[in-house]
């Protein structure tokens, strides 16, 4: 079935033709992802607190405050035109598994001001096709000298370079102390289809220049990760030095990364699922006062991904689940699209190519028992998520209190469900093997004490957050329900809807 085939389920009086040839339905604002799926609690009167996590703006989606387009990441804010801005982008570091470099540089190079002021752009990716042809459209040279590419060395067999992030350095025209870096961690590859047709997660935050050098866990971890992925790049020292110029003390998340290698002792807890385990342990004491019944019977772990490796039941429960939960009784829920959902999506069956899951992996009997539907799971007429292929990857723990749902922690980024990505214990637990490069963010409800800061009548970076002086976020339980909830724009329902006997998980063999 061709990518531009029309399905009756998508027919509407309002169709638009994207540049890359798909027929798209325009969905009304009342069926937006946020309004239909982002509400994780039936109690609309609970306090909900903003977080720096967004979804991407889909091609057919009307304006949504919780969604961002690719281009929107390259402007200081939405109110100041580029030509009137007092900031200019000087350096960019792109990281992605797939990278359509010509599409990216054409997207950011629409303005001559951006092109004229950028000094360097580094693309780091698993592989490149024709790097000698990359150039800005208003550059006459065969290759623009501002653009360089690099593919990291994979130390362990069968691994891939998979992290998806962007570092943008903005320099102030008059006051260097107001330079800032924008850090973006996403699930989207650097290709047009990923940003416009598939649901993705985006964490983004702006960080100003550091007045004085301070030891900072977030910066130290970021530098360690950059050392690994840029080892061999001519710009390694430049970027390690550049990120030191900024103050990351008010980072709203913790970073979770994977780098290929064999690790021992405390070094094992730097990467993969053991990194998540070490972060979760910091908050265990805050859960001790809650009843065992609530902790053990109501906690659930969601595993939502776009690709599945050859995993064993033993690895899933004794390693990954053990890192994600301190209680072995915690229920696991795998959210993955059905065949019907993929066929009836905006892209049709061809869109399933971005869900490269083998039938023998997803149809194991013990995995099928854990399967839950993507989106609302109802195939209702206005359910946006049922029409969009997910490329987002979300791992989270949530709890149910009466009719309320509370997300305790969340990991989003590049991680799929595989031991190559998350790591695997070897040699009776004395060695930890990681094959992939990955990057994600970890956010815990008891750690989040931040608010977005802005200035009226003055140009100011739109993703600047700082720690609250008087923390107004109340994380606790009152009358058997959470008092305050962090607002995560999730494109699926909690709790999810279980597969019926007539549902079958999508598998890549259906395209062959």
UniProtKB/TrEMBL annotation:
Pfam families: Tyr-DNA_phospho. One of its GO terms (biological process) is DNA repair. Substrate binds at residues 164, 393. The record marks 418 as: Interaction with DNA. InterPro entries: Tdp1. One of its GO terms (cellular component) is nucleus. GO terms for molecular function: 3'-tyrosyl-DNA phosphodiesterase activity; double-stranded DNA binding; exonuclease activity; single-stranded DNA binding. It is found in: Nucleus. Keywords: DNA damage, DNA repair, Exonuclease, Hydrolase, Nuclease, Nucleus. The active site is at residues 162, 391. The keyword Protease does not apply. Belongs to the tyrosyl-DNA phosphodiesterase family. This is Tyrosyl-DNA phosphodiesterase family protein. It comes from Cryptosporidium meleagridis.
């Amino acid at each position: 079935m061709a990518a531009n085939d029309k399905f009756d389920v998508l027919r509407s009086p309002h169709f638009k033709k994207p540049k890359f040839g798909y027929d798209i339905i325009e969905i009304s604002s009342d069926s937006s992802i946020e309004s239909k799926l982002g509400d994780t609690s039936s109690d609309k009167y609970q306090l909900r607190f903003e977080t720096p996590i967004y979804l991407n703006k889909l091609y057919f989606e009307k304006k949504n405050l919780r969604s961002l387009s690719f281009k929107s990441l390259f402007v200081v804010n939405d109110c100041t035109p580029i030509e009137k801005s007092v900031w200019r982008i000087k350096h960019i570091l792109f990281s992605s598994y797939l990278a359509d470099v010509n599409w990216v540089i054409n997207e950011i190079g629409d303005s001559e001001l951006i092109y004229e002021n950028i000094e360097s752009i580094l693309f780091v990716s698993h592989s490149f096709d024709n790097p000698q042809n990359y150039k800005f459209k208003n550059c006459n040279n065969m290759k623009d000298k501002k653009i360089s590419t690099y593919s990291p060395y994979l130390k362990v067999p069968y691994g891939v370079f998979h992290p998806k992030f962007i570092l943008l350095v903005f320099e102030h025209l008059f006051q260097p102390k107001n330079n800032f870096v924008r850090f973006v961690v996403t699930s989207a590859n650097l290709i047009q289809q990923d940003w416009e047709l598939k649901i993705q997660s985006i964490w983004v935050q702006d960080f100003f220049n550091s007045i004085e050098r301070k030891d900072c866990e977030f910066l130290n971890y970021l530098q360690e990760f950059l050392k690994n992925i840029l080892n061999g790049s001519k710009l390694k020292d430049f970027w390690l030095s550049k990120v030191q110029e900024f103050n990351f003390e008010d980072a709203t998340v913790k970073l979770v990364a994977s780098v290929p290698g064999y690790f021992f002792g405390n070094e094992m807890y730097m990467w993969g699922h053991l990194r998540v385990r070490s972060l979760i342990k910091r908050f265990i004491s805050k859960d001790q006062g809650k009843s065992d019944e609530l902790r053990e019977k109501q906690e659930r772990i969601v595993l939502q991904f776009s690709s599945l490796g050859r995993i064993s039941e033993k690895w899933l429960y004794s390693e990954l689940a053990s890192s994600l939960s301190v209680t072995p009784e915690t229920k696991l829920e795998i959210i993955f699209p059905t065949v019907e959902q993929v066929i009836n999506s905006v892209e049709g069956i061809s869109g399933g190519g971005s869900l490269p899951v083998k039938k023998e992996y997803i149809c194991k009997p013990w995995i099928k028992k854990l399967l839950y539907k993507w989106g609302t799971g109802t195939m209702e007429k206005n359910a946006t998520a049922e029409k969009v292929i997910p490329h987002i990857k979300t791992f989270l723990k949530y709890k149910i209190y009466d009719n309320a749902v509370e997300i305790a922690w969340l990991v989003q980024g590049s991680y799929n469900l595989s031991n190559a990505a998350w790591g695997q214990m070897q040699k009776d637990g004395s060695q930890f093997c990681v094959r992939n490069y990955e990057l994600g963010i970890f956010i815990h409800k008891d750690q989040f004490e931040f608010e977005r800061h802005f200035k009226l009548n003055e140009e100011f970076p739109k993703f600047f957050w700082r720690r609250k002086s008087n923390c107004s976020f109340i994380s606790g339980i009152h009358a058997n329900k959470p008092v305050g909830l962090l607002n995560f724009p999730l494109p699926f329902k909690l709790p999810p809807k279980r597969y019926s006997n007539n549902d079958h998980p999508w598998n890549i063999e259906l395209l062959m």
